[in-house]
Amino acid sequence: xxxWHVVRVPDPGGWGTSASEGVLGVRDLPKxxxxxxxxxxxxxxxxxxxxxxxxxxxxxxxxxxxxxERESKRNYSTDIRLLLDFLSSRxxxxxxxxxxxxxxxxxxxxxxxxxxxxxxxxxxxxEAAAFTKLFEWGKVYPxxxxxxxxxxxxxxxxxxxxxxLTPRTWGLWSDVGLRGHSRSGIPGPEWDSRTEMRxxxxxxxxLSSALRRQExxxxxxxxxxxxxxxxxxxxxxxxxxxxxxxxxxxxFYASVDAVGQAEAYVESERAWAVKRAQAAGRxxxxxxxxxxxxxxxxxxxxxxxxxRNGVIGERELSRLGWLERQSLFLEGPEGPEPAxxxxxxxxxxxxxxxxxxxxxxxxxxxERVLLSEKERSVTRDLRLAEVRGKSPYATxxxxxxxxxLYLLIVLNQLMETRFGLSRAERRDFALLFGDPWWLVKTIxxxxxxxxxxxxxxxxxxxxxxxxxxxxxxxxxxREGPVEDLDGxxxxxxxxxxxxxxxxxxxxxxxx
Length: 511
Description:
The chain is an alpha+beta fold. It contains 23 helices and twelve strands. The strands form four sheets. A five-stranded mixed sheet has the order 9-8-7-10-11, with no helix packed on it. A three-stranded antiparallel sheet has the order 4-5-6. Strands 1-2 form a two-stranded antiparallel ribbon. α4 (70-89) crosses α6 and α8 (196-209) packs antiparallel against α10. The longest helix has 23 residues, at 396-418.
């Protein structure tokens, strides 16, 4: 057996009940784990013989590794485990790995025809970054792989996760996958709608704001935008730097409708979940509870709290990570209730990664409703394009991509058809306010506009949006912001790979 395993330190309250005699002679395992410097979510590498690898435990506790975000720790440890399996099959310890070993591993992962699960260049670059960090920490020289070396990086490293759904396709996906609609457009008799409002509210807020999964999934109740822009159709709020990828706070915008839907969720479905949790005593059993006593204003608002032991604490709102936010509570009419916006059916804060399961279940329901049994028998990757096109497929990041594409098209159409700017006037407008790419980059929170073009909107960069938009209906209707966007998106979907648009099927389901 050459299989390594990775176990992860549970979150507080996730350890379960320990035996009275302890585990392996340790009576208080959570305390013992904390004393050696491991944090919740940290990986522990278990060798094929069932023993914990002490050297890799030191690596996990090193500054090089522990400074990573929790999601990066999970990804890196998963990548490293695969390399350890490969090296074990050759009876090679990781400290004795050579460049030839890593070249062979890369060939197997990326190019070997006999490998049914070959990975993309972007995925290899992430794995190479994880291996480089391990070998540098372990002082393995010469480095078997070095992500900074051109030859160790993949040339085809454009992210394959970029995907878009047009607005009407999102509507179909939400109706079927999140609201339980059948082809006739009404909820099926078997549909369980207990979390329908939560799920649809999250999707609409993310689609409206272009926030990442962790950003929108970590919001507190009092962080919902409530300040309207001048014309009243959008609100603006501020996302905390601690939950962003760049660690910089930024302003975000969300439509009044999306915010209103989230507020309706708070007042109804979420309120019921909180009431049931209070009645069941779930909050009293939590290992940690910080009752918020005050949220200050100003440029750097702070959250002040008191814990169960009466200890007073405070921290800048922008520096509260998603895990710390889950321990914050507000005093409600029936007792303490979570400050975290998105809750599970049990009334407990929902981890951001939990949205993956929500989207996966919605994708599966779309397939059950919109595909025949024969079409479903073939895995999605192997289906014909015409079959894949019958059933929309979405991930949390698809909402961000789709919002970016929508913003780009709307901004281009406004500049081309509504403002009627000449080429010289467009140049002047761009100098004053930035071109559409720059504006989208700012909303997405990217440091560089080239990142926006390369990773999010590259498939449409080659298109002449001016000519596409010129074909759209541009009747001078000042009541609406954009004319015939469905037609614009339909043309983009026809001429660009990666954009999902449901045409005939939308009409069939809606009728």
